[in-house]
Amino acid sequence: EAGVTQSPTHLIKTRGQQATLRCSPISGHTSVYWYQQALGLGLQFLLWYDEGEERNRGNFPPRFSGRQFPNYSSELNVNALELEDSALYLCASSYRQAGVYGYTFGSGTRLTVV
Amino acid sequence: KQEVTQIPAALSVPEGENLVLNCSFTDSAIYNLQWFRQDPGKGLTSLLLIQSSQREQTSGRLNASLDKSSGRSTLYIAASQPGDSATYLCAVFPSGTYKYIFGTGTRLKVLA
Lengths: 114, 112
Hints:
Chain A is mainly beta. Chain A has one helix and eleven strands. Chain A has one helix at 98-101, and strands spanning 5-7, 10-13, 19-24, 31-37, 43-50, 53-57, 64-68, 74-78, 87-94, 104-105, 109-113. In chain A, strands 2, 4, 5, 6, 9, 10 and 11 form a seven-stranded mixed beta sheet that branches. In chain A, strands 1-3-8-7 form a four-stranded antiparallel beta sheet, with no helix packed on it. The longest helix of chain A is centred in the C-terminal third of the chain and has 4 residues, at 98-101. Chain B is an all-beta fold. In chain B, the strands form two sheets. In chain B, strands 2, 4, 5, 9, 10 and 11 form a six-stranded mixed beta sheet that branches. Chain B has a five-stranded antiparallel beta sheet with strand order 1-3-8-7-6, with no helix packed on it. In chain B, strand 7 (62-67) and strand 8 form a beta hairpin. The radius of gyration of chain B is 13 Å and the shape is globular. Chain A binds chain B through residues 4, 6, 33, 42-43, 45, 48, 55-56, 88, 90, 92, 98-108, 110, and chain B through 31-32, 34, 36, 41-46, 49, 51, 89, 91, 93, 95, 97-100, 102-105.
Protein backbone atom coordinates (compact mmCIF):
# COMPACT_ATOMS: atom_id res chain seq x y z
CA GLU A 1 0.00 0.00 0.00
CA ALA A 2 1.42 3.37 -1.01
CA GLY A 3 1.95 5.86 1.79
CA VAL A 4 1.15 9.55 1.85
CA THR A 5 2.94 11.23 -1.05
CA GLN A 6 4.02 14.86 -1.06
CA SER A 7 5.49 16.83 -3.93
CA PRO A 8 7.77 18.51 -4.57
CA THR A 9 10.37 17.46 -2.00
CA HIS A 10 12.05 20.85 -2.12
CA LEU A 11 10.82 24.19 -3.42
CA ILE A 12 12.72 27.46 -3.65
CA LYS A 13 10.73 30.63 -4.29
CA THR A 14 11.34 34.35 -4.24
CA ARG A 15 9.56 36.63 -1.78
CA GLY A 16 6.20 37.72 -3.20
CA GLN A 17 5.77 34.66 -5.42
CA GLN A 18 3.20 31.89 -4.99
CA ALA A 19 3.95 28.30 -3.96
CA THR A 20 1.82 25.22 -4.59
CA LEU A 21 2.37 22.05 -2.57
CA ARG A 22 0.64 18.75 -3.25
CA CYS A 23 -0.41 15.77 -1.16
CA SER A 24 -1.84 12.39 -2.10
CA PRO A 25 -3.39 10.51 0.82
CA ILE A 26 -3.40 6.80 1.48
CA SER A 27 -6.09 5.01 -0.49
CA GLY A 28 -9.33 5.02 1.51
CA HIS A 29 -8.42 8.06 3.59
CA THR A 30 -10.78 10.98 3.10
CA SER A 31 -9.17 13.52 5.44
CA VAL A 32 -6.06 15.56 4.75
CA TYR A 33 -4.37 17.75 7.34
CA TRP A 34 -1.65 20.33 6.62
CA TYR A 35 0.96 21.40 9.18
CA GLN A 36 3.82 23.88 9.12
CA GLN A 37 7.04 23.13 10.97
CA ALA A 38 9.40 26.09 11.02
CA LEU A 39 13.02 25.43 11.96
CA GLY A 40 13.33 24.63 15.64
CA LEU A 41 9.60 25.00 16.25
CA GLY A 42 6.77 22.56 16.78
CA LEU A 43 4.05 21.54 14.37
CA GLN A 44 1.53 24.29 13.70
CA PHE A 45 -1.87 23.22 12.34
CA LEU A 46 -2.77 24.89 9.04
CA LEU A 47 -5.80 23.30 7.41
CA TRP A 48 -8.08 20.25 7.52
CA TYR A 49 -9.95 18.97 4.47
CA ASP A 50 -12.45 16.16 4.44
CA GLU A 51 -14.71 14.92 1.65
CA GLY A 52 -13.71 17.87 -0.51
CA GLU A 53 -14.53 20.56 2.02
CA GLU A 54 -12.37 22.76 4.22
CA ARG A 55 -13.42 21.74 7.73
CA ASN A 56 -11.13 23.91 9.83
CA ARG A 57 -8.10 26.14 9.65
CA GLY A 58 -5.45 27.22 12.10
CA ASN A 59 -4.29 30.70 13.00
CA PHE A 60 -2.73 31.57 9.65
CA PRO A 61 -3.45 34.49 7.30
CA PRO A 62 -5.78 34.03 4.30
CA ARG A 63 -2.85 33.87 1.89
CA PHE A 64 -2.54 30.26 3.06
CA SER A 65 -5.29 28.36 1.26
CA GLY A 66 -5.92 25.07 -0.40
CA ARG A 67 -8.39 22.62 -1.73
CA GLN A 68 -9.19 18.94 -1.85
CA PHE A 69 -10.01 17.18 -5.09
CA PRO A 70 -12.61 14.45 -5.72
CA ASN A 71 -9.89 11.79 -5.44
CA TYR A 72 -9.08 13.22 -1.95
CA SER A 73 -5.68 14.56 -2.95
CA SER A 74 -5.00 18.07 -1.74
CA GLU A 75 -3.14 21.19 -2.68
CA LEU A 76 -1.79 23.90 -0.37
CA ASN A 77 -1.27 27.33 -1.89
CA VAL A 78 0.77 30.07 -0.27
CA ASN A 79 0.43 33.47 -1.91
CA ALA A 80 2.62 36.56 -1.54
CA LEU A 81 5.42 34.52 0.03
CA GLU A 82 7.32 36.00 2.94
CA LEU A 83 10.72 34.98 4.26
CA GLU A 84 9.14 33.56 7.43
CA ASP A 85 7.10 31.12 5.35
CA SER A 86 10.29 29.09 4.95
CA ALA A 87 9.52 25.81 6.69
CA LEU A 88 8.84 22.11 6.31
CA TYR A 89 5.21 21.61 5.26
CA LEU A 90 3.76 18.28 6.33
CA CYS A 91 0.64 16.59 5.11
CA ALA A 92 -1.13 13.84 7.05
CA SER A 93 -4.06 11.71 5.98
CA SER A 94 -6.57 9.70 7.98
CA TYR A 95 -9.96 8.11 7.84
CA ARG A 96 -12.74 10.50 8.82
CA GLN A 97 -12.39 9.25 12.38
CA ALA A 98 -8.81 10.34 12.96
CA GLY A 99 -9.50 10.01 16.65
CA VAL A 100 -9.77 6.26 16.15
CA TYR A 101 -7.27 5.46 13.41
CA GLY A 102 -4.60 8.13 13.82
CA TYR A 103 -2.57 10.10 11.29
CA THR A 104 -0.17 8.93 8.61
CA PHE A 105 2.28 11.60 7.52
CA GLY A 106 4.08 12.19 4.25
CA SER A 107 7.76 13.04 4.06
CA GLY A 108 7.14 16.75 3.69
CA THR A 109 7.95 19.62 1.33
CA ARG A 110 10.81 21.91 2.30
CA LEU A 111 9.88 25.43 1.18
CA THR A 112 12.63 28.02 1.11
CA VAL A 113 11.77 31.66 0.42
CA VAL A 114 14.68 33.88 -0.63
CA LYS B 1 -7.16 23.98 26.58
CA GLN B 2 -5.14 20.80 26.05
CA GLU B 3 -1.38 21.17 26.43
CA VAL B 4 1.19 18.47 25.78
CA THR B 5 4.64 18.53 27.38
CA GLN B 6 7.59 16.26 26.71
CA ILE B 7 10.49 15.90 29.10
CA PRO B 8 13.42 15.86 28.62
CA ALA B 9 13.81 18.09 25.57
CA ALA B 10 17.03 16.31 24.67
CA LEU B 11 18.69 13.09 25.76
CA SER B 12 22.03 11.49 24.96
CA VAL B 13 22.70 7.88 25.94
CA PRO B 14 25.28 5.19 25.13
CA GLU B 15 24.27 2.35 22.84
CA GLY B 16 22.53 -0.56 24.54
CA GLU B 17 20.79 1.42 27.26
CA ASN B 18 17.10 1.06 27.96
CA LEU B 19 15.43 4.45 28.08
CA VAL B 20 12.12 6.13 28.83
CA LEU B 21 10.66 9.18 27.15
CA ASN B 22 7.89 11.04 28.93
CA CYS B 23 4.78 12.81 27.68
CA SER B 24 2.23 14.59 29.85
CA PHE B 25 -1.08 16.19 28.90
CA THR B 26 -3.38 18.46 30.85
CA ASP B 27 -6.85 17.10 29.95
CA SER B 28 -7.57 13.38 30.33
CA ALA B 29 -10.52 13.47 27.89
CA ILE B 30 -8.77 12.05 24.84
CA TYR B 31 -9.64 9.57 22.10
CA ASN B 32 -6.11 8.31 21.69
CA LEU B 33 -2.42 9.12 21.91
CA GLN B 34 0.08 8.57 19.13
CA TRP B 35 3.89 8.43 19.28
CA PHE B 36 5.88 9.53 16.24
CA ARG B 37 9.51 9.58 15.22
CA GLN B 38 11.00 12.36 13.09
CA ASP B 39 14.43 12.23 11.49
CA PRO B 40 16.05 15.62 10.73
CA GLY B 41 14.26 17.40 7.89
CA LYS B 42 11.93 14.48 7.30
CA GLY B 43 8.29 13.66 7.87
CA LEU B 44 6.83 11.93 10.90
CA THR B 45 6.72 8.15 11.16
CA SER B 46 4.00 6.67 13.34
CA LEU B 47 5.40 4.33 15.99
CA LEU B 48 2.50 3.40 18.23
CA LEU B 49 -1.15 4.37 18.64
CA ILE B 50 -2.84 3.82 22.00
CA GLN B 51 -6.61 4.10 22.23
CA SER B 52 -8.06 5.70 25.35
CA SER B 53 -9.34 2.33 26.53
CA GLN B 54 -5.90 0.72 26.29
CA ARG B 55 -3.05 0.76 28.80
CA GLU B 56 -0.15 -0.05 26.50
CA GLN B 57 1.00 -1.00 23.02
CA THR B 58 4.14 -2.80 21.93
CA SER B 59 6.06 -2.97 18.68
CA GLY B 60 9.44 -4.67 18.63
CA ARG B 61 11.76 -2.87 21.05
CA LEU B 62 9.18 -0.14 21.69
CA ASN B 63 6.54 -0.12 24.39
CA ALA B 64 4.19 2.77 25.05
CA SER B 65 1.97 3.08 28.10
CA LEU B 66 -0.95 5.36 28.77
CA ASP B 67 -2.33 6.51 32.12
CA LYS B 68 -5.22 8.78 31.24
CA SER B 69 -6.17 9.62 34.80
CA SER B 70 -2.75 11.08 35.53
CA GLY B 71 -2.33 12.56 32.05
CA ARG B 72 0.85 10.65 31.26
CA SER B 73 2.33 8.42 28.62
CA THR B 74 5.78 6.87 28.43
CA LEU B 75 7.68 5.45 25.47
CA TYR B 76 10.12 2.75 26.50
CA ILE B 77 12.95 1.88 24.09
CA ALA B 78 14.84 -1.29 24.89
CA ALA B 79 18.47 -1.87 23.97
CA SER B 80 18.89 1.46 22.20
CA GLN B 81 20.84 1.63 18.92
CA PRO B 82 22.46 4.55 17.04
CA GLY B 83 19.69 4.17 14.43
CA ASP B 84 17.18 5.18 17.12
CA SER B 85 18.64 8.70 17.10
CA ALA B 86 15.79 11.03 16.12
CA THR B 87 13.19 13.36 17.63
CA TYR B 88 10.27 11.60 19.27
CA LEU B 89 6.91 13.36 19.39
CA CYS B 90 3.76 12.45 21.23
CA ALA B 91 0.36 13.71 20.18
CA VAL B 92 -3.04 13.48 21.83
CA PHE B 93 -6.43 13.59 20.12
CA PRO B 94 -8.76 15.42 22.53
CA SER B 95 -12.34 14.22 22.76
CA GLY B 96 -14.81 16.33 20.83
CA THR B 97 -12.17 17.86 18.59
CA TYR B 98 -10.85 17.25 15.10
CA LYS B 99 -7.06 17.19 15.31
CA TYR B 100 -4.05 16.05 17.26
CA ILE B 101 -2.22 18.31 19.69
CA PHE B 102 1.52 17.75 19.49
CA GLY B 103 4.22 17.98 22.10
CA THR B 104 7.49 19.73 21.24
CA GLY B 105 9.42 16.48 21.20
CA THR B 106 12.43 14.81 22.79
CA ARG B 107 15.60 14.83 20.71
CA LEU B 108 17.38 11.52 21.29
CA LYS B 109 20.98 10.76 20.43
CA VAL B 110 22.31 7.23 20.90
CA LEU B 111 26.10 7.11 20.94
CA ALA B 112 27.95 4.16 19.40
